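Budget justification aside, the reviewers requested a transparent look at the raw inputs and outputs of the sequence design task funded under Objective 1. We therefore reproduce one unedited record. The lines immediately below are the structure tokens for a 365-residue chain.
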């Protein structure tokens, strides 16, 4: 197979007045600028523009080339043509079209959704073969992903507002952040914070280190206006590796759950519960019910009888619902967790065997 046709000249070469090509003189760029230019040149081949079309748009033959809703970014994960992006980019799509830097205007790969993790906002696509075109190369990924430092330089490539292959630069502003996506309501942990500009259309694009390796996937911004205000967030590559590999293997993610419905934290405090989380209910035949954890109930006279209060999980204090999610994220289906309960005036320890919920391929608490 041949590579897809390009725009007629190589990156770094500009047609001269007489039609001849000449290389851009290196002395015009600093060493640092040359490094950034080369990093972008190599990475942009693997960064794609994703167009998500609904059934109505397909019926109307809408091209979406100038749209910002339903468009986003992704990057090539492996040599089999798998692409990783944010789930919200493709969640409502009847058809997914993927443009690469090598394709002529108006042409695209069609992609199928392999699977997704709604709660972590991760989706995996598979490009369909296109005659005469190879799949774009995969981006290298940082191994381990645990050596990120505040202050190190990062690069974001994406398609903000439909502007294909836009490069922005910045630094890591923070690590280990906790955010709560509006779409799922489930906290995400160990998030990377960056000041590299991230805007609508950047979602699903890679965050790269100075070596051009993926350290995260751009996912969200903190902004009252909906456009970049200096605070962007990326899902770390360690989370991507775990989730994407599971999706590729089975098509979905099984996340461990306790099978518990908690009272809101504010209600716990109003009830005088200063520490721990009150169990409102348990899922029928779920892990908590099997372990004997008691729910809050009313008797026939309407009197409220408080259920168990979860105080600790594996000796770690639990005061927020996020604390429970943090512990669950460290474990897998089938793991046994020691849970300390306050039951009336006694402390009780029970072992709960974590299970995946049966009603969704992506498990929830």
């Amino acid at each position: 197979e041949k590579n897809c046709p390009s725009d007629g000249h190589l990156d770094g070469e500009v047609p001269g007045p007489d039609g001849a090509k000449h290389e851009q003189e290196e002395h015009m760029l600093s060493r640092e600028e040359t490094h950034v230019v080369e990093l972008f040149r190599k990475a942009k081949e693997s960064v794609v523009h994703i167009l998500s079309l609904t059934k109505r748009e397909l019926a109307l033959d809408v091209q979406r080339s100038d749209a910002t809703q339903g468009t986003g970014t992704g990057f090539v994960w492996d040599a089999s043509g798998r692409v990783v992006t944010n789930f919200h980019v493709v969640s409502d799509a009847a058809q997914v079209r993927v443009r690469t830097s090598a394709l002529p205007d108006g042409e695209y790969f069609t992609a199928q959704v392999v699977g997704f993790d709604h709660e972590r906002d991760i989706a995996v696509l598979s490009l369909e073969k296109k005659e005469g075109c190879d799949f774009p190369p995969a981006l290298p990924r940082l191994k381990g992903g645990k050596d990120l430092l505040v202050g190190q330089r990062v690069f974001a490539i994406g398609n903000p507002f439909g502007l294909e292959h836009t490069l922005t630069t910045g630094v890591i502003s923070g690590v280990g952040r906790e955010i709560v996506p509006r779409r799922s309501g489930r906290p995400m942990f160990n998030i990377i914070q960056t000041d590299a500009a991230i805007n609508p259309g950047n979602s699903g694009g890679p965050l790269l280190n100075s070596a051009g390796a993926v350290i995260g996937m751009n996912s969200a911004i903190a902004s009252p206006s909906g456009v970049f205000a200096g605070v962007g967030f990326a899902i770390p590559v360690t989370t991507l590796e775990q989730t994407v590999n599971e999706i590729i293997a089975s098509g979905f993610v099984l996340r461990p759950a306790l099978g518990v419905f908690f009272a809101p934290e504010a209600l716990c405090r109003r009830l005088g519960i200063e520490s721990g989380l009150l169990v409102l209910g348990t899922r029928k035949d779920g892990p908590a019910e099997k372990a004997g954890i008691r729910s809050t109930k009313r008797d026939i006279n309407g009197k409220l009888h408080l259920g168990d209060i979860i105080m600790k999980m594996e000796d770690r204090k639990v005061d927020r619902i996020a604390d429970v999610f943090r512990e669950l994220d460290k474990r897998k289906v089938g793991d046994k967790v020691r849970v300390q309960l306050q039951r009336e005036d006694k402390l009780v320890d029970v072992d709960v065997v974590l299970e995946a919920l049966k009603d969704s391929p992506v498990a929830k608490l």
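The chain has seven helices and 24 strands. The helical segments are 31-43, 55-59, 87-90, 237-250, 265-270, 287-290, 321-329. Computational costs for records of this kind are itemized in the attached budget.
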